[in-house]
Amino acid sequence: xxxxxxxxxxxxxxxxxxxxxxxxxxxxxxxxxxxxxxxxxxxxxxxxxxxxxxxxxxxxxxxxxxxxxxxxxxxxxxxxxxxxxxxxxxxxxxxxxxxxxxxxxxxxxxxxxxxxxxxxxxxxxxxxxxxxxxxxxxxxxxxxxxxxxxxxxxxxxxxxxxxxxxxxxxxxxxxxxxxxxxxxxxxxxxxxxxxxxxxxxxxxxxxxxxxxxxxxxxxxxxxxxxxxxxxxxxxxxxxxxxxxxxxxxxxxxxxxxxxxxxxxxxxxxxxxxxxxxxxxxxxxxxxxxxxxxxxxxxxxxxxxxxxxxxxxxxxxxxxxxxxxxxxxxxxxxxxxxxxxxxxxxxxxxxxxxxxxxxxxxxxxxxxxxxxxxxxxxxxxxxxxxxxxxxxxxxxxxxxxxxxxxxxxxxxxxxxxxxxxxxxxxxxxxxxxxxxxxxxxxxxxxxxxxxxxxxxxxxxxxxxxxxxxxxxxxxxxxxxxxxxxxxxxxxxxxxxxxxxxxxxxxxxx
Length: 508
Ligand SMILES: Cc1cc2nc3c(=O)[nH]c(=O)nc-3n(C[C@H](O)[C@H](O)[C@H](O)COP(=O)(O)OP(=O)(O)OC[C@H]3O[C@@H](n4cnc5c(N)ncnc54)[C@H](O)[C@@H]3O)c2cc1C
Known about the structure:
- By secondary structure, this protein is of the alpha/beta class.
- It has three domains: 2-45 and 156-232 and 338-377, 3-Layer(bba) Sandwich (FAD/NAD(P)-binding domain), CATH 3.50.50.60; 80-152 and 234-325, D-Amino Acid Oxidase, Chain A, domain 2 (2-Layer Sandwich), CATH 3.30.9; 406-507, Orthogonal Bundle (Helicase, Ruva Protein, domain 3).
- It is 35% helix and 23% strand.
- The strands form three sheets. Strands 4, 5, 6, 7, 13, 14, 15, 16, 17 and 18 form a ten-stranded mixed beta sheet that branches.
- The longest helix has 19 residues, at 467-485.
- The model has no long low-confidence stretch (mean pLDDT 95).
- Bound molecules: flavin-adenine dinucleotide.
- Flavin-adenine dinucleotide is lined by residues 12-18, 35-38, 42-45, 47-51, 178-179, 213-217, 238, 278, 323-326, 358-361.
- Residues 12-18, 35-38, 42-45, 47-51, 178-179, 213-217, 238, 278, 323-326, 358-361 line the site of flavin-adenine dinucleotide (FAD).
């Protein structure tokens, strides 16, 4: 089917990058369509370490520009989405006086670089203060620690907030629509072909410019444009383990500054659990549902146990999730851990704009650069980017991140009203998790949740926190969704089966 509208811009990919672009382009008044083949943030953007950070590690690598940019963006994000972000204190334990001053000075510089946007003071800790903050840390050989502040967020919920912000600004966003081909005239792109993944319908869509924001999948789209195009990304997998907070009491996060492969490893409180990660494993094959390798799981368990007095084993894992970094391809430096986290923009001779690399933290700047390039090649009117102080959907500075219904920001009032009107709406989907029926109804009617997985993985974060509970919740979620969407018993059965099969790998 051919659609009648000609869009100013079509964005392929509904992760952090594509959603940021949809917000920016809609804000500038462009007619923008975003197509996502799965659900929003199904890819890398729901699988991050959940840090809004300048990147202490990149400072150690000497990438001052990236750190400065990310620190600026960190401040904008915390200011524009207070309901989805917060300040988190981290501690680096140190085992020599040299390290104490080495990391102390490094983190003072990090704080100074943030200038007036600093989130809190860097502090050199003695042993007593260190153990008070991180009581389960192994004590042997410790000389103290260094404490510093960075940001934390809920990645998939931020993606939903971006989608809703773009929608508020007049953008059109569709999940479960896969881009299958590009349409050209005289060598220039004039449109694309897409297929609805839910009903199989095919569409030909006209547009003045196409932006390829498909993360680790950018090479598939580049290939549609030019089968001889060189690869733009080198994927690298990172995994996280989620365990009970009981293994690591306190509110402070641990940062292990140097793992065996020269990376940093975090153990941070998130959603009443502890997230530990990450790894950096170069991959040749990519998929929508990447799987943690046994060696990656062991790597994290061993490193955590080396620092923590309450040891963990595989049976303590509540969830394991893996994500793929879309690292900009370079003439290999050997290790992806050393590869640049900067973003890059490619403009092909057909005018396809491809953006890749970067970080969640810098999504706004990436979007700005992509829209500037797209507007230029499409000869759209010159309109300046104005997202720096744009409050995201649900903005409410009085809501405390992590409090009841905080992920909805100012929309929480509607959820409370649903419960006030019908108390059964306040019933939990799973006894151990706060997510209630009203939230599910809200997600189906206002957040484009189409499948059981959308609810359990990204509208609620149950799959990422407690895979067993999520698997047990598939049936009640499917029943409620079927009622809301008018689906039959076959749909329900299929949804439960698909979700449970997929979720198995999160059990670790
Ligand atoms: C392990 C790990 C930890 C990280 N931790 C952090 C962190 O703490 N802080 C931080 O700032 N950054 C972090 N990052 C980086 C950050 O998560 C990524 O840079 C960011 O999420 C990438 O977003 P994206 O939109 O480019 O890609 P994605 O989120 O992967 O989005 C691309 C989308 O395109 C869709 N797509 C693909 N092909 C098509 C098609 N043909 N048609 C339609 N849609 C298509 C995919 O389904 C996908 O949803 C981390 C990354 C990893 C891997």
